[in-house]
Amino acid sequence: MLTSEGFDTWAGDYEESILKSTGYPFDGYYDLLAYVQNIVEINPDTYVLDIGIGTGALTYEIYKKGVQIHGLDFSPKMIELAKAKMPNGEFFLFDFQHGLPSELGCHKYDYIVSSYAIHHIEDPLKINFIIQMKGNLKDSGVIVIADVSFRTQEDHDQCKIVSGDHWDHDEYYMVADSIVPQLEAQGLEVEYIQKSSCGGILIIK
Protein backbone atom coordinates (compact mmCIF):
# COMPACT_ATOMS: atom_id res chain seq x y z
CA MET A 1 0.00 0.00 0.00
CA LEU A 2 1.29 3.44 -0.89
CA THR A 3 2.27 5.83 1.88
CA SER A 4 1.34 9.51 1.86
CA GLU A 5 4.71 10.18 0.21
CA GLY A 6 3.88 7.63 -2.47
CA PHE A 7 0.58 9.36 -3.20
CA ASP A 8 2.40 12.71 -3.29
CA THR A 9 4.61 11.28 -6.02
CA TRP A 10 1.63 9.81 -7.91
CA ALA A 11 -0.55 12.92 -7.58
CA GLY A 12 0.59 14.72 -10.72
CA ASP A 13 -0.08 11.71 -12.97
CA TYR A 14 -2.98 10.22 -11.01
CA GLU A 15 -5.88 11.10 -13.30
CA GLU A 16 -3.89 10.48 -16.50
CA SER A 17 -2.85 7.03 -15.27
CA ILE A 18 -6.49 6.12 -14.60
CA LEU A 19 -7.50 7.23 -18.09
CA LYS A 20 -4.89 4.88 -19.54
CA SER A 21 -5.91 2.00 -17.29
CA THR A 22 -8.00 -0.94 -18.51
CA GLY A 23 -9.58 -3.66 -16.41
CA TYR A 24 -8.74 -4.13 -12.74
CA PRO A 25 -8.59 -2.04 -10.60
CA PHE A 26 -10.18 0.91 -12.42
CA ASP A 27 -12.72 -0.82 -14.66
CA GLY A 28 -15.77 1.48 -14.76
CA TYR A 29 -14.04 4.16 -12.67
CA TYR A 30 -15.78 7.16 -14.25
CA ASP A 31 -19.15 5.42 -14.33
CA LEU A 32 -18.87 4.89 -10.58
CA LEU A 33 -17.92 8.52 -10.00
CA ALA A 34 -20.83 9.72 -12.14
CA TYR A 35 -23.24 7.52 -10.21
CA VAL A 36 -22.14 9.07 -6.91
CA GLN A 37 -22.29 12.58 -8.36
CA ASN A 38 -25.86 11.98 -9.55
CA ILE A 39 -26.95 10.93 -6.06
CA VAL A 40 -25.93 14.25 -4.53
CA GLU A 41 -28.67 16.89 -4.43
CA ILE A 42 -27.33 20.02 -6.11
CA ASN A 43 -28.03 22.85 -3.71
CA PRO A 44 -25.92 25.72 -2.26
CA ASP A 45 -26.96 24.48 1.19
CA THR A 46 -25.71 20.94 0.52
CA TYR A 47 -22.56 20.00 2.43
CA VAL A 48 -20.44 17.08 1.26
CA LEU A 49 -17.43 15.49 2.93
CA ASP A 50 -15.15 13.59 0.53
CA ILE A 51 -13.07 10.94 2.30
CA GLY A 52 -9.77 10.38 0.48
CA ILE A 53 -10.48 13.29 -1.83
CA GLY A 54 -7.27 12.85 -3.81
CA THR A 55 -7.14 15.31 -6.69
CA GLY A 56 -10.86 16.02 -6.38
CA ALA A 57 -11.99 13.79 -9.26
CA LEU A 58 -15.18 12.78 -7.46
CA THR A 59 -16.42 16.06 -6.03
CA TYR A 60 -15.13 18.66 -8.48
CA GLU A 61 -18.15 18.27 -10.77
CA ILE A 62 -20.64 18.91 -7.96
CA TYR A 63 -18.46 21.70 -6.55
CA LYS A 64 -18.80 23.53 -9.91
CA LYS A 65 -22.58 23.43 -9.43
CA GLY A 66 -22.44 25.18 -6.08
CA VAL A 67 -22.27 22.36 -3.53
CA GLN A 68 -20.14 23.00 -0.42
CA ILE A 69 -17.17 20.60 -0.35
CA HIS A 70 -14.98 19.49 2.52
CA GLY A 71 -12.15 17.11 1.68
CA LEU A 72 -9.97 14.76 3.72
CA ASP A 73 -6.71 13.18 2.56
CA PHE A 74 -3.33 12.17 3.98
CA SER A 75 -1.37 13.37 0.93
CA PRO A 76 -0.39 17.07 1.00
CA LYS A 77 0.17 17.05 -2.77
CA MET A 78 -3.25 15.54 -3.48
CA ILE A 79 -4.87 18.19 -1.28
CA GLU A 80 -2.87 20.89 -3.05
CA LEU A 81 -4.24 19.77 -6.42
CA ALA A 82 -7.80 19.45 -5.10
CA LYS A 83 -7.62 22.90 -3.53
CA ALA A 84 -6.45 24.38 -6.86
CA LYS A 85 -9.64 23.01 -8.45
CA MET A 86 -11.91 23.94 -5.54
CA PRO A 87 -10.54 27.10 -3.90
CA ASN A 88 -13.68 27.59 -1.82
CA GLY A 89 -13.53 24.07 -0.40
CA GLU A 90 -12.24 23.25 3.05
CA PHE A 91 -9.54 20.60 3.36
CA PHE A 92 -8.15 18.47 6.17
CA LEU A 93 -4.77 16.72 6.10
CA PHE A 94 -5.37 13.48 8.01
CA ASP A 95 -5.02 9.70 7.64
CA PHE A 96 -8.53 8.22 7.91
CA GLN A 97 -7.02 4.91 9.03
CA HIS A 98 -7.16 6.67 12.39
CA GLY A 99 -10.81 7.69 11.95
CA LEU A 100 -11.89 11.28 11.44
CA PRO A 101 -9.95 14.31 12.68
CA SER A 102 -11.22 16.12 15.76
CA GLU A 103 -11.80 19.25 13.66
CA LEU A 104 -14.76 17.50 12.03
CA GLY A 105 -16.46 16.77 15.32
CA CYS A 106 -18.94 19.63 15.04
CA HIS A 107 -19.67 19.25 11.30
CA LYS A 108 -22.83 17.56 10.03
CA TYR A 109 -23.05 16.62 6.36
CA ASP A 110 -25.81 15.88 3.89
CA TYR A 111 -23.50 13.41 2.17
CA ILE A 112 -20.25 11.71 3.07
CA VAL A 113 -18.72 10.26 -0.08
CA SER A 114 -15.58 8.34 -0.92
CA SER A 115 -14.04 6.90 -4.07
CA TYR A 116 -11.26 4.35 -4.34
CA ALA A 117 -9.94 5.01 -0.85
CA ILE A 118 -11.60 2.86 1.80
CA HIS A 119 -9.93 -0.29 0.44
CA HIS A 120 -6.84 0.79 2.37
CA ILE A 121 -8.35 -0.41 5.65
CA GLU A 122 -9.39 -3.91 6.72
CA ASP A 123 -13.07 -4.82 7.03
CA PRO A 124 -13.36 -4.52 10.86
CA LEU A 125 -11.92 -1.01 10.60
CA LYS A 126 -14.25 -0.25 7.67
CA ILE A 127 -17.25 -1.13 9.82
CA ASN A 128 -16.04 1.04 12.71
CA PHE A 129 -15.16 3.89 10.37
CA ILE A 130 -18.56 3.83 8.67
CA ILE A 131 -20.26 3.92 12.07
CA GLN A 132 -18.09 6.92 12.98
CA MET A 133 -18.99 8.65 9.70
CA LYS A 134 -22.68 8.08 10.46
CA GLY A 135 -22.22 10.33 13.49
CA ASN A 136 -21.26 13.20 11.18
CA LEU A 137 -24.38 12.90 9.01
CA LYS A 138 -27.47 15.06 9.25
CA ASP A 139 -30.63 13.12 10.11
CA SER A 140 -31.42 12.57 6.44
CA GLY A 141 -27.78 12.20 5.41
CA VAL A 142 -26.31 9.48 3.21
CA ILE A 143 -22.91 7.79 2.97
CA VAL A 144 -21.92 6.75 -0.57
CA ILE A 145 -18.77 4.72 -1.16
CA ALA A 146 -17.47 3.87 -4.64
CA ASP A 147 -14.56 1.46 -4.70
CA VAL A 148 -13.00 -1.69 -5.98
CA SER A 149 -15.52 -4.20 -4.67
CA PHE A 150 -17.40 -7.37 -5.47
CA ARG A 151 -20.82 -8.84 -4.82
CA THR A 152 -19.51 -12.26 -3.79
CA GLN A 153 -16.26 -13.80 -2.58
CA GLU A 154 -16.29 -15.94 -5.72
CA ASP A 155 -16.30 -12.79 -7.89
CA HIS A 156 -13.43 -11.38 -5.80
CA ASP A 157 -11.37 -14.55 -6.16
CA GLN A 158 -12.01 -14.79 -9.89
CA CYS A 159 -10.83 -11.22 -10.43
CA LYS A 160 -7.72 -12.00 -8.39
CA ILE A 161 -6.94 -14.98 -10.64
CA VAL A 162 -7.53 -13.04 -13.86
CA SER A 163 -5.47 -10.06 -12.64
CA GLY A 164 -2.45 -12.22 -11.85
CA ASP A 165 0.62 -10.16 -10.98
CA HIS A 166 -1.38 -6.93 -11.20
CA TRP A 167 -3.43 -7.83 -8.11
CA ASP A 168 -2.60 -5.64 -5.10
CA HIS A 169 -2.22 -7.88 -2.06
CA ASP A 170 -1.95 -4.89 0.30
CA GLU A 171 -5.52 -3.70 -0.27
CA TYR A 172 -8.78 -4.89 1.30
CA TYR A 173 -11.65 -4.92 -1.17
CA MET A 174 -15.25 -4.99 -0.07
CA VAL A 175 -17.34 -8.09 -0.68
CA ALA A 176 -21.01 -7.13 -0.46
CA ASP A 177 -22.20 -10.52 0.75
CA SER A 178 -19.93 -10.09 3.76
CA ILE A 179 -19.92 -6.40 4.63
CA VAL A 180 -23.61 -5.60 4.02
CA PRO A 181 -24.93 -7.99 6.71
CA GLN A 182 -22.34 -6.64 9.17
CA LEU A 183 -23.51 -3.08 8.59
CA GLU A 184 -27.17 -4.07 8.78
CA ALA A 185 -26.44 -5.72 12.13
CA GLN A 186 -25.43 -2.22 13.33
CA GLY A 187 -28.91 -0.93 12.46
CA LEU A 188 -27.90 0.72 9.19
CA GLU A 189 -29.93 0.71 5.97
CA VAL A 190 -27.59 -0.53 3.25
CA GLU A 191 -27.75 -0.97 -0.52
CA TYR A 192 -25.01 -2.36 -2.75
CA ILE A 193 -24.83 -1.89 -6.53
CA GLN A 194 -22.26 -3.62 -8.73
CA LYS A 195 -21.31 -1.24 -11.54
CA SER A 196 -18.40 -2.98 -13.26
CA SER A 197 -16.36 -6.17 -13.12
CA CYS A 198 -14.49 -4.88 -10.08
CA GLY A 199 -16.29 -1.72 -9.01
CA GLY A 200 -19.34 -1.16 -6.86
CA ILE A 201 -21.31 1.40 -4.88
CA LEU A 202 -22.23 1.07 -1.20
CA ILE A 203 -25.06 3.35 -0.06
CA ILE A 204 -25.68 3.70 3.68
CA LYS A 205 -28.49 5.59 5.40
UniProtKB/TrEMBL annotation:
Domain Methyltransferase stretches: 43-174
Superkingdom classification of source: Bacteria
CDD domains registered for this protein in UniProt: AdoMet_MTases
Name of this chain's protein: Methyltransferase domain-containing protein
Organism: Paenibacillus antarcticus
